[in-house]
Amino acid sequence: MNDLSQMLADVRRGMIPAYVYNDEEVFKLEKEHIFERSWIFLAHESEIPEPGDYVVRRILEDNFIVARDEEGQVRVMFNMCLHRGMQICRAELGNASHFRCSYHGWSYRNDGKLVGLPFHNEAYGGEDGFSKSGQSLLPAPAVETFNGLIFANLDPNAQPFREFLGDFAFYLDFYTRQSGDGVEVRGPQRWRVKSNWKIGAENAAGDSYHTPQTHRSVVEIGLFREPTGAKRKEGALYWCDKGGGTTYKLPPGTFRERLRYVGYTDEMIDRMESSWSLEQKRLISDDGFMISAATLFPSFSLVHNWPKVDANADDDEVVPFITMRVWQPISATETEILSWFIVDKNATEEFKEASYKGYLMCFGSTGMFEQDDVENWVSITSIAGGSMARRLLLNSRMGLTSADKPLNTPLADFHGPGLAYVGYGEFNQRALLKEWADCIERPLDQKEQLAMGEKILASGTKGREK
Amino acid sequence: MAISRIDTTGMKPLSFGDPRHLEAHQFLVDESYLLDAQLYDEWLANLTEDIHYSVPVRVTTARSSDFDTSPGMAHFDDDMYSLKLRVARFATEHAWTEDPPSRLRHYVTNVRSFETVAAEELFVQSATLVFRSRGDNREPDFISATREDILRREGGSLKLSRRLVIMDESVVRMQNLAIFL
Predict the structure, then answer these.
(1) Residues of A in Cβ contact (< 8 Å) with B89
(2) Domain ranges across chain A
(3) DSSP letters along B51-113, please?
(4) A114-125 average pLDDT score
């Protein structure tokens, strides 16, 4: 890494040192300063609808069981036995009333409570040697849900999630609350790419400029009519609190006509009408914008597109789909992508199937959009590892004059919160990396240690409440 | 019969000397050459119009679970329309992920054939190991999988009418699946 304060200053003025996409020291800072104290998406509640349902997910190397307990409450528990540190659950998903450690047989209820400790009396003298009562698998330090989306934070003193999310919630509703009952998800597909995690996050946040070039082939084959250069530059880019995204400008019409244009059925539009606020509806009806890609800092992204799914359909008969993904960093040069398909829980089976098909054709491991994105991101990461990349500052100042003034004025009558611009610009990529720089600069707190089952606590450590 | 994902009622294994087995085996080997060379138009011509080509997402589950693929989610869940679009895309000059093209090798082995209750259809299991090399110096990627195919005789020759690919890894270690398995 070059000088840290210089690097952060460069990033803040929109000149990105190319090596930040392939640097071990930068990645170490990201792990401690960002991923160990940011809100990270783990799962959606619809993945674990029944008591005992669980999925296993990660934040960096930390592995969590995300389970619905017998009372129906979602629990996020560190997947490590309190005794010798064995990974308690070694499946990715399933249903279980209890998790039993395969090493010495300690067992935990699906709410995490320690209920079985073989030979407790003989081995420990009962409660005196190991206080079993009230012990449970270590819960994730902070957990919050929004529209069924389960987020966790490794920092017990983290800013509360709703405060962190801020008014970006306004935009999240378009993807995850199309009806009062919310959405259901399928997946995730999981695959590993030799790409730095930031590149995908930046791309989804605001890169409407790449679409006409990177995704030219999907227009040529008639899969998706929208992403031409002429159309993309008419869209608005918005940034609001900790997230931002891209939109498409829709042809003239009412709220209903514009939602029909992207393929929603009337019964779905009825539900959107009753579940979205007046301002949310006016973003579509008055402003004429339809949300497309978005990123919530640091690594959670969403996409909404409307391809032609049916072979026999006319060119204007399209079906919308939504996907969300996590860019889970493995190293400075590798990312595991977890990509889910999302659909309104109340949609018809016919719509769900068509939308799912649209997703598979466009995004995810086989998606005809995403295939070309990842090819580019792998190349960037690979070439950012050398000495020349240490000298090169990438220009991420699109949309700004040399005097740091926006080329276009922000939209005055935009009905969404935050700041929005029409036209190409790297406003959102800069906003995301500014957040990144602020996080890296903020000093780390002292981490507490937790001692299990110990009655007399060693000095300097702090026990858990019984 | 070994564990299969499809209903094998009424199926009978064919001996390795059976002409139908030899024909099925040859179909798979010939197909591998087309897939390695990315001769996808020729490959499509060897599929029936009602082809269902699916690659579910494999998941790690407890032995006591009755499933090991992700409920409702696949990598591919394609019919002729979506396969044709994928192939058409590779034929444009802007499918960056395959330009320069990957070097591919589909190794096909462990082929077993079965006659089915439909006289014109054979059920064929095989194992495949796909090697993919991109760029001049990147580490190559591999995918190991089993395939369960229905080959149907149409106009005198066998065509693929159903392929179910069960991958041996849960997390795919390849930048994308811009290839066929």
Answers:
(1) 217-218, 220-221, 223, 368
(2) 41-144, 166-441
(3) EEEEEEEE----TTSS--EEEEEEEEEE-HHHHHHHHHHHHSS--GGGSSPPEEEEEEEEEEE
(4) 96
